[in-house]
Amino acid sequence: MKVRTLTPIVAIAAIATMATPSLQAQNQEAATSNASCYSALVSGTQTLSAYIESMNTNGTVEVNGGDTQRPTTPFRWAWGDGSTTSGFFPQQHVYANAGQNYAITITATENNGSTQTVSIPLFFVHPSVTKKSFPGISFQIPSTPVQFQSHWTGYTPPTDVTEFPNTSFPFYSRSVMAYILQALSSIDYTFANKNSFLLKGVFSIDMLEVTDSNFNGGASYWFTTPMSVGYSASVLNAPIAWYILFNEVGKDTTLNTPTSLTYGGNTDGNASEIYSETMGDVFSYASGCQLVSNPSTYGLDPAVAVDIGNNLLSGAASLQQAYNNYVALGAPFSSWNPYNSGPDPTLGTVSTLAWKFIEHAEQQGQGYQTPAQRMMQLLQLFDSSMLASYAPTENTQAAATFRSTLMVTALSYAFSQDLRSEFMSLNFPIDDATFEQLYEMATGGGANPSPATESFGSVAVGSTSAGKTVTLTNYLLTPLTVSTSFSGRDPNDFPLQASSTCPSSGGALAANSSCTYVLAFKPSVKGAESATFSVAEIAQDGSLPLPNSPQSVALKGSGK
Question: Which residues pair with 557 in a beta bridge?
């Protein structure tokens, strides 16, 4: 089974010749929770560009470019070797050591005081990495034939694939590329909440060349053992299409989840792409951003991180353009590809979902790991009843509405925002009852009290202990009506304090908000005492009962 990959709509920047909007903190370690790679695309403010005009082996480099805003302040140049200069294009620099690679960063200060940055990878020698260990993760680019099996009944390993010859790696070596993709795979597995196919306990993928001369792009062979990906030789031509390489690894990961009932094999066919292609794109750009934003963690040379990051930006620009085309065409939603040799009607739908993931991640500014894991947490609820509603063999409005609602709910849960109106304005059909039910299932039911146990220690009989706080968080997108009760052996000896901020019984806790209950212990007898404090919730929008309501906190203490 081959799964098509989006073809680029805009030109990919040439290695060491063209710069696209730079990655934030790409030359230093960034907090993984705050990785940001595509903000310039989201804001549409990038006017600065740069490219390598010339370079020679004695270390002399000339960089040219421009800024359409025509700033009057000279650009700041960080050459990657510790030296900085200022000046307008073109600029020349001589490196004392032409035996290593560098990332050149150029910062423009615009006439309105704002700044923007681009980075260029400069390769004097072949790209290198400092290999780290990724236990339980294997990514191989075999140089000898591999005998594949299949872990999905009815699917046989592909026959139009072979090992890549050594000539396919004139710039990035086979081992360096395999290492980079192993690091990417470790991120993918984490982003999938470590819920995907394992071969003897190892998340394992092999990479092969597709021999079909009419094929151009990538393919996910998620069903093979080990999992595998296939690419046309053109994907490895300079500039390497990293976002296509990452896309198919993402599909291997997400089509093999949840392991209890995988999307792969169950949702295949005409209705597969709203899930498979969306998740390939989401994982390509999310995991790729995580990789290049943390070069030290993953052993990437700064030039390698910039090279990969610039290619991801180019691919994301293609994705953004596909979304803009979808809007310009009147937002023709489709979750059904007839495979009739005509244009793929799902392309705009898939591009919209993936671009909106990137857009919200950049706007929220909390990085990509948390939203990716939350999105997968909801999608991993997939079970036989959801499969029946997904109806992969049916081209009906009901099935299309469920598929759409599933993906929009997953995005909403990823960012803790109700995105229904946003997607409905883009002609995505959404069923409110299904949305609310899925969202509540993902949260585990309404509001969660924390901690689950409070111990007050030893308190004199008749005295009141210091208060202890129980935090109640409503993870839903709707207010909850809450009520409290005490039960157990000593329910009257654990009084609720007036300093509590939660609403009284029958009151409302707002969507996506928290409050606190303050409880104390006032023993009436000597010896061990206990009670249970319970919180029951009802969704105010009238949706289905919350599955885990009421939820409880165990209370204990001892009178002396």
Answer: 529
Q: Chain centroid to CA 2: how far?
A: 23
Q: How far is CA 44 from the centre of its chain?
A: 22
Q: What is the pLDDT confidence band of residue 23, given thresholds at 50, 70 and 90?
A: very low
Q: Which residue has the tokens 């249970």?
A: 532
Place of tokens 């899925």: 438
| Residue among 290, 207, 202 nearest 249 (CA) | 207
Query: Would the pLDDT of 537 be above 90?
Result: no
Closest by CA to 136, choosing from 196, 40, 203, 210, is 203
pTM of the model: 0.81
Domains of the chain (ranges; CATH) run 32-122 (2.60.40.10), 447-559 (2.60.40.10)
Q: Report residue 178 as tokens.
A: 């395999």
DSSP state of 83: -
Task: In whole angstroms, give the CA distance from residue 520 to residue 229.
Answer: 59
CA-CA distance, 1 to 493, in Å (whole number)? Answer: 65
In whole angstroms, what is the distance from residue 413 CA to residue 404 CA?
A: 14
Total Cβ atoms within 10 A of residue 364: 15
> What's the CA gap between 430 and 75, in Å, rounded?
49
> Residue 474 has which token pair?
């409503």
Helix axes 174-191, 242-255, angle to 10 degrees: 40
Strands 453-459 and 551-559: parallel
Residue 37 near residue 25, CB atoms below 8 Å: no
Q: Which residues contact 307 (CB under 8 A, 6 or more apart)?
A: 15, 16, 121, 123, 127, 239
Kind plus residue range of the DSSP H or E element containing 40: helix 39-43
Instruction: Find, among 307, 293, 290, the residue nearest to 29 by Cα.
Output: 293
Q: Taking a C-beta distance cutoff of 8 angstroms, is the pair 413, 375 a contact?
A: yes
Q: Please check whether residue 538 is in contact with residue 546, taking contact to mean a CB–CB distance below 8 angstroms.
A: yes
Q: Residue holding tokens 């890549």?
A: 164
Q: Given this model, what pLDDT does residue 511 score?
A: 78
Structure tokens at 161: 């694939």
Tokens of 433: 């009852």
Pairing of strands 203-210, 227-231: parallel
Buried b (16+ CB within 10 A) or exposed e, 186-222: bbbbbbbbebbbbeeeebbbbbbbbeeeebebbbbbb
CA-to-CA distance for 132 and 116, rounded, in angstroms? 32
Those residues with Cβ within 8 angstroms of residue 428's Cβ, 6 or more apart along the chain or in another chain: 333, 349, 352, 404, 408
The three-state secondary structure class of 385 is helix
**pLDDT (tens digit per residue) in 448-473:** 678 889 999 999 999 999 999 999 88
Q: Which two tokens stand for residue 313?
A: 């930006």
Cα dihedral sign, 387-388-389-390: positive
Structure tokens, 419:
């995105």
